[in-house]
Specification:
The structure holds three protein chains of three kinds. Chain A is mostly helical. Helix content of chain A is 59%, strand content 6%. Chain A has one domain. Chain A has a two-stranded antiparallel ribbon. Chain A is elongated, with a radius of gyration of 15 Å. Chain A starts with 5 loop residues before the first helix and ends with a helix. The relative contact order of chain A is 0.17. Chain B is mainly α. Chain B has four domains: 5-64 and 130-254 and 274-367 and 382-405, no CATH class; 553-619, no CATH class; 631-741, Helix Hairpins, CATH 1.10.287; 749-903, Histidine kinase-like ATPase, C-terminal domain (Heat Shock Protein 90, 2-Layer Sandwich), CATH 3.30.565.10. Chain B is built from 35 helices and eleven strands. Chain B has a five-stranded mixed sheet. In chain B, helix 32 (753-771) runs parallel beside helix 33. The termini of chain B are far apart. By secondary structure, chain C is α/β, with parallel strands linked by helices. Chain C has a single domain (4-120), classed as Rossmann fold (3-Layer(aba) Sandwich), CATH 3.40.50. Helix content of chain C is 45%, strand content 20%. Chain C is globular, with a radius of gyration of 13 Å. The N and C termini of chain C lie close together (10 Å). The chains are: A mainly alpha, B mainly alpha, C alpha/beta. Chains in contact: A-B, B-C. The A-B interface holds A 1-2, 4, 7-9, 11-12, 14-15, 18-19, 22-25, 27-28, 30, 33, 35-38, 40-41, 44-45, 48-49, 51-53, 55-56, 59-60 and B 67, 70, 74, 77-79, 81-84, 87, 219-221, 223-224, 236-240, 242-243, 246-247, 250, 278-279, 281-283, 285-286, 289, 293, 296, 537-538, 642, 646.
Amino acid sequence: MKRASPTRQRLAALGLLGAPLLTYPLLSLPAGSLWGIPASYLYLFGVWAGLIFLAAWVAERRGT
Amino acid sequence: MVLSGWLIALLSAAYLAVLFAVARFGDARADAGKSIISANVYALSLAVYCTSWTFYGSVGRATSGGLSFLTIYLGPTLMLLFVGVIVKMIRISKAQRITSIADFIASRYGKSQLLAGMVTVIAVIGVVPYIALQLKAMAASVDVLLNHSGSKGEWLGLDSTFLIAVILALFSILFGTRHLDATERHEGMVAAVAFESVVKLIAFMAVGIFVTYGLFGGLGDLFQRAVTEADLGRLLELESGRAGTWTSLILLSGLAIVFLPRQFQIIVVENVDESHVKRAVWLFPLYLLLINIFVLPLALGGLLHFGGEGVNPDTFVLTLPLAHGAEALALLAFIGGLSAATGMVIVETIALSTMVCNDLVMPLLLRSAWLRAQHRQDLSGLLIGIRRVAIAMIVLLGYVYFRAAGEAYALVGIGLISFAAVAQFAPAMFGGMYWKQATRAGAVAGLSAGFLVWLYTLLLPSFAKSGWISSGFVEQGLFGLPWLKAQALFGLSGLDEISHCLWWSMLANLGAYIAVSLNSRPDAVEASQAERFVDVFRFDRHKAETRLWRGKASLDALVSLLERFLGTARARQQLAAYAQGKGLADWRKLPADAEFVHFAEAELAGAIGSASARVMVASVAQEEDLGLEEVLDILDEATQIRAYSRELEAKRQELEAATSELREANERLREVDRMKDDFISTVTHELRTPLTSIRALSEMLHEDPRIELASRTRFLGIIVSEAERLTRLINQILDMAKLESGRAEWTSGAVDLGEVARETMDSLGQLFRDKGVALSSDIPARGPVVQADHDRLTQVLINLLSNAVKFVPGGSGKVHVRVGIDGGSVRVEVADNGPGLTAEECGVIFEKFRQGGNTLTDKPKGTGLGLPISRQIIEYFGGKLWVESRPGEGANFIFTVPLPASEE
Amino acid sequence: MTKKILIVDDEPNIVISLEFLMKKEGFDVAVASDGEEALAKVASFEPDLVLLDVMMPKKSGFEVCEALRADPARAGLLVVMLTAKGRETEVAKGLAIGADAYVTKPFSTKDLVTRVKGMLGV
């Protein structure tokens, strides 16, 4: 039987990690602002960018 | 610069021409076998997801909903991370020559024409609002530009939206149905979409940067002013009150990214290489992130700038640059918006028209007498014609919806209605891919239930809102029943209308799908398709495909079928390729066997969808119906074959393990062999040494009878003692060999160890006295008694005592024997005041032929086997033998023998 | 001039028999019972030939032979290795480090005498 590839499993794990990070109740946490930019804006784009970066890292690694 | 109508029209035409050229280029390269669809192009083409909704609508949405517009892009980001699901969809589609999402669902549930038609109807009705959205946005953008220059958006009394609809429809027809071959893939289109994706991203970011850094002092400044000057702070907060909507929208958009007909087309049908998905999984989300960075700044900028002037927030992308005289930038933004809208309309209408043609029109045509009359005629032209009409009709429907309901909604509101419609495909799709028990009846029930709920709670209310139909069923409930209020079913209120529809429709859809599936039985075709879909990674296609079809077919009939639907040229090309794969130079010599029938059906499916292809093949071949039982048998067999191969795999692994064990055992044996070799070499040495003296001396005595008597006597004495040594050695070697091999004979009885020690001391007393060594003891009068072999224990004690006397100095030597009880064992010690042993020697003296005192000049007389034999004996009785010593402090040899359990 | 032979072995009985044998043949004999003593005796006794046992305490016959061969002043010294280990690798090793002959125990007294005499040119 063919096993799911480790890359796919890692990416799916990222998806499962991202879901709670990008929904409530965690989303109601960021408050205030940094350098004049609202924390909510920074949090959402930050987590999003982080996920993208990790996905790129996992997907583009050699030999997988 | 004057933004006249003509300039706008010219620029638009030029841009569309560029798109056209890109597509031509892509197609030409594909035809030449040099595809330009790389992983990057694939990832960019996914951005057809970003339509006017994203380009104009998100800003509008952000002016009222703050950051919630982002959910539409977070859902796809998360969904794509489940690469396994996407790849499985692609793998199935390639194996089954799937042409659309309708085809996918129909094919899974037994190539059902009914399901194909249903999915097509739902998709068309569901997506029509989405097309209306594009028309509305385009119209609004043209109006903004024309108003700015004072022109009028009418021509021959027709409104601009209608004109735009006509132009988009014509362009889509030109674009999507240029070819006469009706295959499922369009590489040129993918290339053009990737290109337009780049254009709209650049355009949007240019406007974003202009507004953020040109009109305001950067992000920080913009946000600060929004909070302080205009009290827009609430847009920047993530209130937990929106949690429900937030989650629904993420879920909805996650489903839409694969189930919107155009997204399915791009992600699944147009995919040329599964590995491209791995690029898309991050590059596409990165695109989404970039295009969204400036949405909120633009929304805030627009609100700050226009205040209460009543400018439509959906047009801020254009009005903000225009208000500051940046007309060129506004034109770029307009091109970006045009790009977003045309990209969407082209791909969406191509996908939908394929579905309409294959799954609605073809089934009707195939039944009509007219088609039968046209026997032997090439029908590929007819297929293209049908698609062109379908494109025109779909765009027209979009225009009708825009007229009927478009005014009441902002852009995003319209788009979400479509999202909720295509979400209805989710249970049938996912279930079809992972649940074999799912049946056609279940899929039909689920889709119908979900679609009806969507119709009642979302689509019809959208008409009611614009006053096109009576709104009674929304406000008072159908027939005046309050629990039937369209947007508060069963009194469920407090949700936004999208979440309300999503949860009710999903409940109905999933519930009906699962319940009916569990209570119905699949037919033969369904069962085999279920197997092919769910087990796509394992299905032994070749084997089962040929077994699953039985009947008679003629090559001619099948070939003419292919020629009719694919066109003669393409059909012959495919036939030649297939024949070549079989090792035949001429396809006319192909046998019309099950495999060929399967090939023909797959080729047809690529052109007219699986359901129609099934019907067409059945019409020219005399097929035997395989009963459900028979199909299940064949599939079971395939499963068994899989089981066998799994078993084989397990056996192979076992074998490998056994082999490596063998290798290890072999290694150990070799080691043992080497040790034996060393042992034999050592034994040989030990035997040869006394023999040397014996031989030399006896030869001399033999040859020279005149040797004087004293020497003669001395030599004979040596010969006798060396012969004794030899005998002792041989006995001990044999003893050792017996002990090691476990063949030694043991007697067992109650042995009083104190008694044994006394006896041994008595028998060796003379030896000690001869050397002047003091022998003392500390032994209890009776016992302790152990279960053991009396003679063997005596042997051990003799060995220890004679070793001791050998090493202590004559005259001043002292040896002390102690017998006592230590825990559950008897402990016997033989201590001497000899030279002692180093830590290293304490270990090695128990090895065979390692005699103590190697460092002494006078070599002790011993065989080097006494201690190893003693240790073997003691260990046989469950005890231990060791030595405690330090150089210069004497040695203490200790052994223990466990007491019988009862005496503990 | 009487040839001098040094007998080196840690087995006293072997030393006794060899000493008797060689003296009977008219050689001047000295004995040593380990490697270190052997080197000392070579220096003091200055033998023409050494009968050298391999397996000995303190310094093995091989080591003694190597030490002797490393000294250019003793280039003419003949070395006959005696060993109870008859394996070919041992023979090869002995010859490789410069022994002039290799005799396996137990040996024929007649053969040994003939060999020693032949080597000394007596």
